[in-house]
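call fold(seq) -> tokens
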Amino acid sequence: MEYEQLTERIIKYAIDVHNALGPGLLENVYKECLFYKLLKDGFHVEKEKPLPIKLENIRLDCGYRMDLLVENSVVIELKSVKRLEDIHLAQILTYLKLGKYKVGLLINFNVTSLKDGIKRVVN
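ret:
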């Protein structure tokens, strides 16, 4: 499946979750629900996937964890904040760079319409 098709399907499930729950809940609630929806549809999804740092050919676990990784290719970073800030974009760009992934979705569930809370990020 191509990146565009995959991200469109992920966004559809995120919208389904948002429509069912609305804004204002904790990030972890949205993460668990989106994880469930993607697994139910047969996607390979990893939750809280560690992302080590490599320094001098040594892997160091520095606490980086991707919220979701779908089909070993799309990084999903979920938020439930008043508004997305530059630091949130920097976070997902860091995950893409460290993991050598091409595409990510930054999704803020704390909005009235989820379309306003989604950023597709390409490395």
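The mean pLDDT is 95.
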